[in-house]
């Protein structure tokens, strides 16, 4: 190629317009992009406004949410709270100097479960009453003294005095073992078995004492005082034997004088007592028709 041909080719190329290639989004694509960006900004503002509103309504703070505060010892809840599901906690206590209320429309149950999900102790308070289930139940005073204890073997009352305020008293279907039975001052003490017998036993003796009143023993059939190895002593200034039968003397041995008002107490061989009019001598043999 000669020099003139090269020069002519360069002149032809320089005389043509350069081609421009556009880079970017134009037209309806650009308008859609702006619309989606604007919509996204509106959603972000709405979301931010809702988040601020929720934080304000729920009272979210650095320490917790509303009446619920997060402390070093756990969660601190102020005011009334309602739990719709079971609550699991290691310890529940009220604010110092404030009472703790547990309220339910049906019942409040406290269950102690074992390692194999077995019920060990249960405490239920409901409309029907108060129920407790466990191996042992104890009530102690503030000083640690045992006041009441119950298990499968026995029931222990550790108080100094057990008082029964019911009008019918206390009813025991089995035996009762106690070192002392006493009524309140100026009150009567009654031991009664309406349909069966009443038995009192003590290896070293039984003492019945009424310091300011009377002692009455009333029965329908027989009242028996028996001492196997000892004696029965009646120690009083006056001893009255009421409604003892009076022996009748035979006609031949009866005196024709006035009727005597002095009697002597006689004993039959079977132990029965009767009265006989006193005379110059003993009249028991004469009036022993009661022993027949």
TrEMBL record:
Gene Ontology terms: biological process: cardiac muscle tissue development; determination of left/right symmetry; heart contraction; regulation of skeletal muscle fiber development; skeletal muscle atrophy; somatic muscle development; swim bladder inflation
Residues passing through the membrane, by range: 32-55
InterPro entries: Sarcoglycan, Sarcoglycan_gamma/delta/zeta
Membrane topology per record: Single-pass type II membrane protein
One Pfam family here: Sarcoglycan_1
GO CC, any one term: sarcoglycan complex
Primary localisation category: membrane
Record has Electron transport as a keyword: no
Keywords from the named record: Cell membrane, Cytoplasm, Cytoskeleton, Disulfide bond, Glycoprotein, Membrane, Signal-anchor, Transmembrane, Transmembrane helix
Similarity comment: Belongs to the sarcoglycan beta/delta/gamma/zeta family.
Protein name as catalogued: Sarcoglycan, delta (dystrophin-associated glycoprotein)
Organism of derivation: Seriola lalandi dorsalis
Upper taxonomic lineage: Eukaryota, Metazoa, Chordata, Craniata, Vertebrata
């Amino acid at each position: 190629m000669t020099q003139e041909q090269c020069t002519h080719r360069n002149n032809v190329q320089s005389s043509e317009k350069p081609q421009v290639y556009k880079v970017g989004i134009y037209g309806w694509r650009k308008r859609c992009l702006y619309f989606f960006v604007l919509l996204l900004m509106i959603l972000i503002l709405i979301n931010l406004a809702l988040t601020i509103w929720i934080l304000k309504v729920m009272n979210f703070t650095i320490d917790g949410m509303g009446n619920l505060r997060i402390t070093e010892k756990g969660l601190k809840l102020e005011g009334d709270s309602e739990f719709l599901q079971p609550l699991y906690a290691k310890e529940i206590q009220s604010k110092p100097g404030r009472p703790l209320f547990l309220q339910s429309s049906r019942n409040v149950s406290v269950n102690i479960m074992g390692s194999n999900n077995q019920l060990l102790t249960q405490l239920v308070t409901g409309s029907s009453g108060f129920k407790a289930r466990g191996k042992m139940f104890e009530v102690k005073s503030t000083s640690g003294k045992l006041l009441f204890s119950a298990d499968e073997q026995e029931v222990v009352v550790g108080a100094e005095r057990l008082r029964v305020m019911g009008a019918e008293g206390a009813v025991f279907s089995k035996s009762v073992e106690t070192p002392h039975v006493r009524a309140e001052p100026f009150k009567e003490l009654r031991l009664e078995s309406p349909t069966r017998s009443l038995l009192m036993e003590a290896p070293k003796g039984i003492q019945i004492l009424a310091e300011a009143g009377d002692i009455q023993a009333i029965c329908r059939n027989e009242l028996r005082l028996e001492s196997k190895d000892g004696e029965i002593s009646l120690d009083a200034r006056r001893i009255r034997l009421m409604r003892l039968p009076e022996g009748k003397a035979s006609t031949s041995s009866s005196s024709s004088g006035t009727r005597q008002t002095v009697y002597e107490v006689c004993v039959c061989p079977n132990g029965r007592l009767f009265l006989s009019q006193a005379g110059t001598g003993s009249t028991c043999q004469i009036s022993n028709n009661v022993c027949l």
